[in-house]
Structures are given as structure tokens and as C-alpha cells.
Amino acid sequence: MIGLDTNVLLRVFIEDDPAQSERARRLVRRATAEGRVLINSIVLSEFAWTLARTFKLGRLEIARLLAELLSADDLEFERREAAKAALDAYRAGEADFPDYYLAEVNAGLGCASTATFDRAALKHSRFSSVP
Fold first, then answer.
1. At residue 128, what are phi and psi to the nearest 5 degrees?
2. In sequence order, which residues have a C-beta less than 8 Å from that of residue 50 and are 6 or more positions away?
3. Dihedral (Cα; 98, 100, 106, 109), 10-degree rounding
4. pLDDT of 61-105, one tens digit each?
5. pLDDT, tens only, 48-64
């Protein structure tokens, strides 16, 4: 198994450096043919955040790319079910995907809620305000 850094995963989808994009796609094709590729929680969160902040993609496009990733059977995810629940919340809500993902991971670890100052996140039941 091989783990991917965020910049490699981004190059699979974003053609901002054609040479790196080709190298990233070739690596992922080879690695998935030989075994599995791991996308951990940090990379998935950074992926969504970078798509929004650096590449200025909209929510619908980010959700589409996340759904494409999460539906790939030849990729391993550290917490696929939490990521899917976060994607559903992201599609319906106003907060960023990493916020929803964090809340889902925390819930899976036994947290009653995730404390935040983020007003958009507070609209979701997994979050609580800081008193």
C-alpha cells in the first residue's frame, strides 16, 4: 500500500502542472493495479480545503470530486463512512467539508459534539457553541 500526499492527489484532478499531473496519475494507476492506495483523513481534508481556497472551486464541484474519490473501490480511506457522512452534510449545509469531516471523526471517537465558533457549522447537530 502507498499513501498519497495532498499535492499528489490534487495533481490527479487538477491540471495546473501537466508534468506533475501525468506523474501523479501514472503513480496512482500503477499503485492501484499492484495493491491499494491510502488517502488518510488529513489528506482528504486538505484536498477539499485546497480545492476551495487555492483553486477557487465551488461547493458543487468540490462535492462532485469528493464523491468520485469516495466511490472508488480501488482506494482506501482512513474513515470512508465518516467522510461519506461529512459529504452529505457538506452538500446540505453551509460549513466547509473539513469541518463536517472533523465532527464525524470526533463523533466516531465518542465525542458528544465538536465545540466551535463557526456559525455555519453550528447549524449542524454535530457541533456545539463555546459557552
1. -135, 150
2. 6, 10
3. -100
4. 999 999 999 999 889 999 999 999 999 999 999 999 999 999 999
5. 999 999 999 999 999 99
DSSP code string of 2-37 = EEPPHHHHHHHH--SSHHHHHHHHHHHHHHHHHS-E
pLDDT digits (tens, 9 = 90+) for 86-97: 999 999 999 999
> Does the pLDDT at position 36 exceed 90?
no
CA separation for the pair 85, 104 (Å, rounded): 7
Place of cell 461519506: 84
Distances (CA, A) of 127 to 48, 81, 107: 20, 18, 10
φ and ψ at residue 58, rounded to 5 degrees? -80, 170
